[in-house]
């Protein structure tokens, strides 16, 4: 069964994100603005609060992957006051992301200080729908200013352009371009970049993914705030939730997270992210899930338990063979997630920078780790090959231990 056909209780859910192109004066694509969308047919955002922003960030980085959404192009992400003043964290590095200050944000000293701090960290700042209203106080640190064109008096627009041009470092983005006349006016006024329905409407991208446990998020956050917690405890909490495990792997693999090495396990991802950044990610994940939460939705415990059981079985089998158990757990986990979602393993891990032995084991069961996951799969289906029957008692014992472990995990959730 394809995920789209699965019942609500199957443990997966469909996530969405809007993406609208931004072009330069030659018509070349230079950036995308990422937008909150609640469903595939949404024509606009039904929410613009901190929860919506959190969902955009989490979906972009730890579900879709920024490289899949934008490739080499910039991404503009709208921020609410909570992010600008540091009440909510930004768990990614500066680089390919432009932070967009919404026109609804009231500009006061706290916001100015927060935006300056973000600019000092290397983030590019954009002012959205600029009309003044105190936002001119941010022009000295802004890299982009977006001005609406359609429906705006040309003389008033010309005055706004002139005011912004006093800041030589500012690039002007003409937004809400709906007609050829709008585009001609913007070109005549010397705008640098162009965005609007005339050039490209927002496109909603959708993805089937696992539903994470909020309890695991809360448990992990509490552990991450305790200085006595070690990496092993953190890893154990994450590996108890397949969806959370996958999100953490995606976050660690995000180019914006500064990762330039391959990873082999959840433990690698935890070490690479570090406790501070991991805490930031988990906070946003928990907040973003509030937006799409359905009070009547429950995870199918049997299916989730099966994923965990396979991961644990691979881990137990690897120990008897002298193979790295953390790698084996990751191989079993990701192969189980692929089966649960009904997707090809190579598609699931296409945007994960996994080590070659881990990816090979997941995609085509190659190498020693591939033999482990093949044995686990065969035992699950009752089709164990004769070559593996010599140790069938040990295998049965490992299987029962894995089942018991996974059921205990699920019962605690």
UniProtKB/TrEMBL annotation:
Source domain of life: Bacteria
Domain EAL positions: 1-216
InterPro entries, sorted: dGMP_Pdiesterase_EAL/HD-GYP (IPR014408), EAL_dom (IPR001633), EAL_sf (IPR035919), HDOD (IPR013976), RNase_Y/CdgJ (IPR052340)
PROSITE patterns assigned: EAL, HDOD
Pfam family, one: EAL
Residues of the HDOD domain: 210-398
Protein name as catalogued: EAL and HDOD domain-containing protein
Organism whose genome encodes this protein: Planomonospora corallina
């Amino acid at each position: 069964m394809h995920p789209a056909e699965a019942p609500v209780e199957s443990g997966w859910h469909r996530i969405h994100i809007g993406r609208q192109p931004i072009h330069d004066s030659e018509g070349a694509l230079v950036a995308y603005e990422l937008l909150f969308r609640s469903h595939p047919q949404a024509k606009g955002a039904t929410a613009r609060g901190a929860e919506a922003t959190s969902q955009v960030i989490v979906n972009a980085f730890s579900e879709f992957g920024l490289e899949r959404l934008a490739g080499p192009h910039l991404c503009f992400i709208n921020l609410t006051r909570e992010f600008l003043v540091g009440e909510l964290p930004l768990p990614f590095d500066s680089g390919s992301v432009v932070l967009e200050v919404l026109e609804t944000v009231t500009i006061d000293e706290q916001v100015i200080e927060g935006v300056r701090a973000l600019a000092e960290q290397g983030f590019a700042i954009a002012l959205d729908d600029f009309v003044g209203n105190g936002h001119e106080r941010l022009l000295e640190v802004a890299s982009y200013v977006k001005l609406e064109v359609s429906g705006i008096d040309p003389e008033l627009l010309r005055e706004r352009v002139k005011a912004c041009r006093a800041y030589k470092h500012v690039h002007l983005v003409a937004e809400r371009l709906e007609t050829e006349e709008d585009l001609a006016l913007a070109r005549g006024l010397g705008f640098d970049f162009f965005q609007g329905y005339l050039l490209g409407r927002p496109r909603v991208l959708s993805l089937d993914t696992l539903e994470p446990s909020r309890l695991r998020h809360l448990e992990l956050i509490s552990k991450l705030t305790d200085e006595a917690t070690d990496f092993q405890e953190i890893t154990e909490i994450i590996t108890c939730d397949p969806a959370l495990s996958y999100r953490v792997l995606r976050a660690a693999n995000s180019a914006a997270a500064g990762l330039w090495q391959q990873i082999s396990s959840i433990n690698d991802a935890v070490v690479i992210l570090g406790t501070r950044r991991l805490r930031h990610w988990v906070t946003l994940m928990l907040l973003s899930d509030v937006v799409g939460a359905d009070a009547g939705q429950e995870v199918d415990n049997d299916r989730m338990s099966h994923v965990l059981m396979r991961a644990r079985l691979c881990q137990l089998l690897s120990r008897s063979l002298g193979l790295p158990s953390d790698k084996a757990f990751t191989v079993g986990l990701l192969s189980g997630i692929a089966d649960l979602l009904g997707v090809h393993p190579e598609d699931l891990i296409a945007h994960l920078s996994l080590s070659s032995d881990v990816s090979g084991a997941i995609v085509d069961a190659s190498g020693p780790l591939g033999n482990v996951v093949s044995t686990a799969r065969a035992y699950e289906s009752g089709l164990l090959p004769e070559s593996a029957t010599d140790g069938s008692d040990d295998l049965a014992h490992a299987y029962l231990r894995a089942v018991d472990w996974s059921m205990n995990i699920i019962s605690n959730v």
